[in-house]
Specification:
The protein has about 325 residues and is of the alpha+beta class. It has one domain. It is built from 13 helices and 13 strands. Strands 2, 3, 5, 6, 9, 10 and 11 form a seven-stranded antiparallel β-sheet that branches. A four-stranded mixed β-sheet has the order 1-4-12-13. A two-stranded parallel sheet has the order 7-8. Helix 13 (about 300-310) links the parallel strand 12 (about 290-295) and strand 13. Helix 3 runs antiparallel to helix 5, helix 3 packs across helix 8 and helix 5 packs across helix 11. The relative contact order is 0.20.
Length: about 325
């Protein structure tokens, strides 16, 4: 319920435009080929991607251990439980760790946007030695794109058909909120798993053939699965300036054909996996309202060439303007 309320609040707080910073090649791909790339989470430039939420889950699960033998087994010091539901079953504890680690380590592909369309830090990151572009998409359009992509790939992703999410930055307020959310999830998991083990003996579970629904692992997966996407949109506070939103697609690894449409591009440290997300809805309208041309030596010519490209591809009414930041790329 808390996750649903957060999503509703984020929809209400969405800016009218969300900007995607890209290179010349990226702009051509979006305008000419009518698709955008969603890159595998572990290949982004933030080395802490996908690591914050798993650590909070691990800390919370370990804080619930009660048995001295279990504490010794996991090499931990006794802790104060502060009235939380404690875990006295080694299997429940270990399955919680295993399932939460599995969920948060799965394949997630993201496309990044910012509510700020003219950030110096982003121009430095995306311009390189040439001009960069900031493409302003309608946020409503991006939400629709995410929903259509998920609907067109049934069973392929773990999702509630809401691909567009605001990133959360791990500062004090967010840390407290995340810890409280995970504290509640862990409590619910331990309570249900403990109750199920007590109410249905293992021999009865096996005889009735219902172990898939009643084992601690299955119960843990149910509670921790939504945290896969949460992990993909929780970032280090050092990136707060980017004011990032993401289209995030959490791949269902049970799908045999999950690698069939993954593409690869070259990167500085190796090949980078990505997905192509179509930008054309049924009415064939692409929701680009504005393009900002990054700092460069010849801004007027750069702006004009973008206008020519848009005209050739049949785009109308898109505002194209130069960035006025006095930054000189090489």
């Amino acid at each position: 319920m808390e996750g649903q309320e957060r999503q509703k609040a984020e929809v209400q707080s969405e800016p009218e435009l969300l900007y995607h910073y890209t290179t010349q090649e990226g702009l051509l791909g979006i305008i000419e080929k009518k698709h955008i790339w969603a890159t595998h989470l572990r290949y982004l430039n933030d080395t802490s991607e996908g690591k914050i939420v798993p650590q909070v889950i691990l800390n919370e699960l370990n804080s619930r251990l009660n048995s001295d033998a279990m504490m010794q087994l996991f090499g931990m010091q006794p802790v104060e439980h502060s009235g939380k539901i404690i875990c006295e079953d080694e299997e429940i504890h270990s399955q919680g760790i295993a399932m939460s680690s599995w969920v948060t380590s799965q394949d997630v592909y993201v496309t990044s946007f910012s509510k700020e369309g003219n950030l110096l830090s982003q121009w430095r990151a995306y311009s390189g030695e040439s001009v960069g572009y900031s493409i302003g998409f309608s946020s409503n359009y991006l939400r629709a794109i995410g929903e259509h992509f998920l609907q067109d790939n049934p069973g392929r992703f773990y999702s509630d058909l809401n691909g567009l999410n605001r990133c959360h930055y791990f500062e004090k307020k967010e840390e407290a909120s995340l810890k409280k959310e995970i504290e509640d999830i862990v409590s619910s998991y331990i309570a249900e798993a403990s109750a199920k083990k007590q109410s249905i003996p293992e021999i009865e579970v096996s005889r009735r053939g219902i172990e898939g629904f009643y084992t601690p692992g299955a119960i843990a997966l149910k509670y921790f699965l939504p945290l896969g996407t949460r992990s993909a949109i929780t970032k280090d506070a050092a990136f707060y300036e980017e004011a990032e939103w993401r289209l995030a697609f959490h791949v269902n690894t049970n799908q045999i054909q999950r690698h069939s449409d993954i593409k690869f591009r070259t990167g500085r440290s190796g090949l980078i996996p990505y997905l192509e997300v179509p930008l054309i809805l049924k009415d064939e309208f692409i929701g680009i309202w504005k393009i900002i041309v990054g700092p460069c030596q010849h801004p007027d010519e750069a702006v004009n060439s973008v206008k020519m490209l848009l005209e050739r591809e049949g785009f109308k009414g898109i505002e194209v303007v130069p960035s006025r930041i006095p930054y000189r790329n090489k």
